[in-house]
Each structure stands twice: as C-alpha cells, then as structure tokens.
Specification:
Elements (H helix, E strand, L loop, with lengths): L2 H13 L17 E6 L7 H16 L4 E6 L7 H10 L4 E4 L5 H4 L15 H8 L2 H12 L2 E3 L4 E5 L1 E4 L14 E4 L3 H9 L3 E4 L5 H6 L5 E4 L1 H6 L8 E4 L4 E9 H5 L3 H35 L3 E4 L3 H10 L1 H9 L1 H11 L4
Parallel strand pairs: 1-2, 1-3, 7-8, 10-12
Antiparallel strand pairs: 3-11, 4-11, 5-11, 6-9, 6-10
Helix pairs in contact: 2-11
The protein binds (2S)-2-hydroxy-2-methyl-3-oxobutanoic acid.
The site of (2S)-2-hydroxy-2-methyl-3-oxobutanoic acid has 10 residues, from loops.
Amino acid sequence: MPEIISRRLFTKIGAGATIGAALPLRYARAAEFTFKWGTNVPDTHPLNVHARRAAAEIKEATNGRVDLQLFSNNQLGGDSDMFSQLRSGALECFTLSGVNVLSTLIPSASIYGLGFAFKDYPTLWKALDGRLGEHLRAQITKAGFVVMDKIWDNGFRQITTSTKPIAQPSDLQGLKIRVPVSALWTSLFKSLGASPTGINFAEVYSALQTHIVDGQENPPAIISAAKLFEVQKYCSLTNHMWDGWWFLMNRRAWAQMPADVQEVFARVVNKAAMAEREEVARQNESLKADLAGKGLIFNDVNPIPFRDALTKSGFYKEWRGKFGNEAWAMLEEFTGELA
Ligand code: X2X
C-alpha cells in the first residue's frame, strides 16, 4: 500500500473511533474489563500514587485486557455514597477502612481500630497479615465482597484542633471533633469526654473551616495531602488508633474476570499495598517537620492516661461485649491484654 493511502486509512479508522482514539496503540483491542476504583483521599496521597501504578501494571500484565480507572478524592461521592455504589455494582472497586462505614454493615470489621490497641507497626502487620486479618477478611467475604489480602496503610492517627493542644484526657472535654461515620469511633471519643460528629472525609475541610467542628483526627500524610493545616492550628501526637483501607471489590465485577486474570489482578494490587505501606510510614514521620514549617504546632502525648480513662469509662468492657470473646481473644493475642 502506498504510504499516503495507508496513512489516510489509519486516520480514517482512528477518527471513526472503531479502534478508539483514546486507546494506546500498543494494545490491539479495547479492554475487556473496565473497572472504576474510588478512593476518599486527595490525589497526591500515596494511596492514589500506588493505585495508579497498580492500574498501569495490571494493564501491562494483562495486555490491556483490564482497564482499572482511578477516581481519587471522593470524585464519585463521599464514603457512604461510594459504599452503596460498591454494593450495587455501580462502583467496582473501593478502598475502605474497616472502622469507617464498612462497620455500619459489618460491625466486627472495626475491631483493629479499638483505642490504643496497637502500639507499633510490627505488631500491627503481624496481626493483619496474620490470623486477625484472615478472620476479618472472612467476615467481609461472608458479607458479599471480594477483599484483597493486604490492607493498605493510612497510619496511626493524631488529633488536630483549631482551639488548643490535647495533652491529657481533660483537654478533650466537650471538644467538637469530627470522626468518620462509625459507632466505634463515636464511642471512643464520647468515652474520652469529647463531642464527636460523624462526617465523611469529603466534607472535613469545610466542616473545620466553618467551625461545625473544631478538631479532627488523621495521620500526617492526610493532614498534608488534604491541606488541613490551613484550617487547624495544633496537632497532638496521641497515636490513639491505627487505620488502613481494605481493597474491596464488587463480587459480580470480580467474577467477570477469568481465574488467570484475577490472579494477576490480586498479585499486583497486593504488591502495590506493600509499597504504599512503606511510603505512608515514611511520610507520616517525615511530614511532621514539614507541617510544623507550615505553622502546625505539635505536642507529644503520653497515651497512658487516655487508655486509663477509656478503661474507667467502661469502653473496653462495652466493646468486648459487642465483638465477642473469641474475636477479642484473637486481638489480644497480638496486642496483649487490653483491659
Ligand atoms: O475518613 C477519614 O478520616 C479517613 C480518610 O482517614 C478514613 O478513610 C478513615
């Protein structure tokens, strides 16, 4: 074929969108499986950075058969919206904390978020990559979702306020603080004497800006990515709990893929979670200095009086009753005795 004709032909086919103008030329055909992945944190957060890498790697490894499209920063709605989309199948993939709205459907999923349960990362990964995680994923599977093995790291949580630093439990008295929509989170802060309100992360910046609440709690990587330092003055290093995101998938969407593609998908997503953990842990340390430079005032906190206050208020006793002795024992296997 003379070159001029072949070029014209090519242009014509391209313009006709039969072979899709947006399709990278290196893949011979359109993706067979197109899935949306929703996240609730700003685009620069490591969750999204590693999600995007995973999507590229899955596309590469499946020769373009799987197109995983990332919708970061609550573009598809807040956590409550995304969770119902995931259940209906309107959203195929969603990274969601077990302590957050997932616990409204599966109360036991929140157990790892119990106040002051985990003291460090080694203990935590041992539990969640081990028997406790296995137990939690079994509950999530039973509720109708597909869940990947490796939980993504959000981090140990710190309290920020616009009003005053938190050094001891009495500083929390009456504090209007935002928590995610979750019975455990609300109970934790009520037991410490604060006045918590359940709000999806999508609305946190404006809730702080308009003083619907005076404080919130999140790890430095989120405080930085969501620019919460613009509307908060103090950051108290309470490390009151750890949280992460399970990679959840709608079961019908998952079942569309043949087993070999599912295997690639799971392997790449789990590998990305491991890389994300490293980056998040690094950022949660290194960003403290950066945030201090932006005006956030940090203070260290002794966790013992907080833990004692929770014990005294009956918090652990109440939640032990809710989670049941078996799950509680499984948690204490890793954390040591809680109360
Ligand atoms: O909502 C939050 O604060 C966040 C982003 O940390 C969770 O997903 C629990």
